[in-house]
Write a structure and sequence with these properties.
Helix content is 37%, strand content 25%. It is of the alpha+beta class. Strands 16, 17, 18, 19, 20, 25 and 26 form a seven-stranded mixed sheet that branches. Strands 1-2-3-4-10 form a five-stranded mixed sheet. A hairpin with a 2-residue loop joins strand 29 and strand 30. The longest helix has 92 residues.
């Protein structure tokens, strides 16, 4: 473990330890660092760090800072206009990064974030110190109730102004705020005052009431918002809901804010009724005794319906979560509910709809609290038990601490659990099967997904080595996007940043596709053994089943010799139990493979010898058959020649031709005679044509030489007629001239 805070190491791949913002935050850590907090958050490319000493927020565009490694990117300081009267233990940016919630057990403050502009995407073009408007919510409420605490805060994903925040208090109530205005107070359990009265104790201080309520296990410890559903207008009016948010807008918000899949959104749209249904957001509420309730409400619902407790199947004797501490909802279809206990157990369950809800019931401890029959039930698929710290020599002793859960917004099949002993990454395998089942367009009425694969929990960072050693709690955990990574701030001031794989299923699918060519259901076990790559088989044997986290201990005090000896003993035991055994198994596998290969080699050598003998026999047989073939070919050629000679001689000795030959000869002779006759007729016709042509030419020549002459008498008559016509024409001409002259004179 390196104590240096500067530079990029194997546990600081983004180089955040050397940034000025964390150098300042390291000197301004909170005084109480004994339990897990969340004083670091990210939203897109903005990093928020709470300065506990100066009560301000440090911000940095971490993406621009990681790109400009040579230049030190300046951080900005956001100072709230109204100081907080409580200790901040959690910061949470809103969905659209418009507000920043500052929360602690004894108060809640909303910080209005300024606008961003400039080349580096900073607030107000990189102004060093900015005073931001802030609102302290319900200060008088906490002043009048000294034992009232805030347990959880969450921004509502369907807020039209990105300003609605839900706050869970220790008196079994959820308060809905719109920035600084209180909109609703929803009861999610029995009231402390009524519980103490029903129990027979006189009304006393608030601490006694809350303590009695917690001892009964009826105190809500966490809540989360599930994907919305559409209810009929009659049901919405009966419950006092006036939320007119449309389903299409809701689905769009869910895809942006809850990372819901396209298959889930399409199913929600298909369920929207045509009679003006309302959108309702089920709020999943977890009690300390492991019971789960659902509060069906919208943003503007006055009287929400509280349903529960939800049936949890399969039923077990010790229930699920006797010491429950946190809950998150994964927006799959159906939604996945993650419930964590302080002892390290995490339950994965599906939220399914009941076919026939029970009758309406009242609260057992509070008659004024109406609890409706549950429309859902939880089907627990698996339980994952996390290792809180490295296992010591005495395994009988167990360590427990509150576990905080956070979803991975880029991968809905993964979430993180951070606590006093470090950080775990849990990958859900059944969500991928649910998506494939929903997106399958074929008829799936008789086929349901079989959840055969188990989820995987990886211990990423360990901050507690032994049970008696002091822990190094997590003070801040945030997820980085583009590039993907995790950011962890520890109580010792160390900052751990690591790259993150976006989706483990891509690696799993590539391995499965590459291994398909090695699998065959019909092969024998020996053939299957030889088909599998031996290197992959040895790697799978040597692969450790237990993940070894990065060890980050508290450096403020040196461990005692006893603690060092226990740590060495634990490491030795880990090597013996998890590594030496696997190496011995790998050695046995190698010896087994060598023995099998030797047997196969001997068998193959015997088969080669047998094949050589068979090859020699086949060669001798082929030679003998070739000689016989040549002899048979020679004899066949000789017989063929003899047959040809016999046919020739028989043909020559025939006395006369056959009947067909005679017929053919007669036909040829007839054709010849007919041809000669036709030729003679053609010649005669040609001679006649020539003679006629000569006569025609002579007649044409005589016709051309003939001259036509008239008799003398006729000639004289024609001349007289022509002369008379000439005289008449001449007289007509003179008359015309005279008429023209007369007309001209006139």
């Amino acid at each position: 473990m390196s104590s240096s805070h500067g530079g990029t190491t194997s546990t600081d791949s983004f180089g955040f330890n050397g940034m000025k913002i964390f150098e300042v935050a390291r000197d301004c850590l909170p005084d109480d660092r004994k339990r897990t907090q969340n004083l670091v958050e990210t939203k897109d490319d903005v990093l928020f760090v709470w300065n506990s000493k100066n009560c301000c927020v440090l911000t940095l565009n971490w993406r621009a800072a990681s790109v400009k490694k040579d230049e030190q990117q300046k951080y900005q300081t956001l100072v709230p206009s109204a100081p907080q009267n409580f200790t901040v233990e959690k910061i949470l940016p809103s969905t659209e990064a418009t507000f920043l919630a500052l929360s602690g057990p004894r108060g809640l403050s909303i910080l209005e974030l300024p606008r961003r502009w400039g080349p580096n995407g900073q607030y107000q073009n990189g102004k060093e110190c900015i005073i931001c408007r802030s609102y302290n919510l319900d200060e008088h409420l906490f002043a009048e109730n000294p034992n009232l605490e805030i347990l959880q805060i969450r921004w509502h994903p369907a807020s039209p102004t990105d300003s609605h925040i839900l706050t869970l208090l220790s008196d079994n109530s959820i308060r809905v705020y719109d920035v600084d205005s209180l909109r609703h107070v929803w009861r999610v359990g029995p009231s402390p005052g009524l519980v103490s009265t029903l129990a027979g104790s006189p009304p006393g201080p608030g601490s006694a009431k809350l303590a009695y309520l917690s001892s009964l296990g009826d105190t809500a410890v966490d809540f989360d918002i599930a994907p919305p559903r559409v209810v009929s207008a009659a049901t919405a009016m009966a419950t006092g809901s006036s939320d007119d948010t449309t389903l299409s807008r809701t689905v769009t918000m869910m895809r942006d804010n809850l990372s819901i899949s396209s298959a889930t959104g399409s199913v929600l749209k298909s369920r929207m009724p045509d009679n003006g249904g309302k959108v309702e957001w089920p709020i999943i509420i977890l009690l300390g005794d492991g019971n789960v309730y659902i509060l069906c409400a919208g943003i503007d619902t006055d009287r929400p319906r509280l349903q529960g407790p939800i049936s949890i199947l399969p039923q077990v004797e010790d229930n699920y979560g006797l010491d429950s501490c946190s809950l998150i909802v994964v927006p799959s279809l159906p939604p996945t509910i993650i419930i964590a206990e302080s002892n390290g157990k995490i339950h994965h369950a599906l939220l399914l709809e009941e076919e026939s809800p029970a009758e309406r019931s009242l609260g057992e401890l509070d008659s004024s609290l109406v609890i409706y029959p549950s429309e859902w039930y939880l089907q627990v698929l698996e339980t994952v038990e996390l290792e809180l710290g490295l296992t010591g020599v005495d395994e009988a002793k167990t360590y427990s601490c509150p576990i905080h859960l956070k979803r991975d917004m880029l991968n809905e099949a993964r979430y993180f659990a951070y606590h006093d002993a470090g950080l775990h990454a849990i990958t859900l395998d059944f969500t991928r099967q649910l998506v494939q089942f929903v997106e399958n367009e074929e008829d799936t009425s008789d086929r349901y997904p079989l959840f055969t694969s188990q989820s995987r929990a990886e211990y990423v960072v360990c901050t507690k080595a032994l049970l008696n050693m002091s822990s190094n709690p997590v003070l801040g955990f945030a997820l980085l996007q583009s590039p993907s990574g995790i950011l962890l701030q520890l109580a010792s001031g160390q900052v751990v940043t690591m790259d993150l794989i976006s989706d483990h299923s891509l690696i799993r699918e590539s391995k499965v596709s590459s291994g398909l060519k090695y699998s065959s259901a019909t092969d024998s076990s020996l053939k299957q053994l030889l088909k599998d790559p031996f290197q992959d088989r040895i790697q799978s044997i040597l692969k450790s089943g237990a993940t070894q986290p990065i060890l980050k201990l508290d450096q403020s005090s040196e461990p005692t010799p006893q603690e060092s000896f226990e740590l060495l003993t634990q490491a030795t035991r880990m090597l013996r139990e998890h590594y030496f055994v696997k190496h011995e198994k790998a050695r046995q596998e190698i010896e087994r493979r060598v023995h099998v290969l030797r047997l196969l080699k001997d068998q193959q050598l015997n088969e080669i010898a047998q094949l050589q003998e068979e090859k020699q026999q086949i060669r001798e047989t082929a030679e003998r058959l070739a000689e016989n073939y040549e002899d048979i070919c020679d004899k066949q050629n000789a017989l063929f020649k003899r047959a040809q000679e016999v046919v020739r001689l028989a043909t020559l000795r025939l006395p006369k031709g056959s009947f067909s030959e005679k017929k053919y000869a007669e036909m040829i002779e007839k054709i010849g005679n007919a041809t000669k006759l036709l030729q003679k007729n053609v010649d005669q016709a040609k001679q006649k044509i020539s003679a006629q042509q000569v006569q025609v030419e002579q007649k044409q020549k005589a016709q051309n030489e003939k001259i036509v002459t008239l008799p003398s008498k006729q000639e004289e008559i024609i001349k007289q007629i022509i002369g008379e016509m000439y005289l008449q024409i001449d007289g007509y001409v003179k008359d015309v001239k005279k008429i023209n002259n007369v007309l001209n004179l006139a």
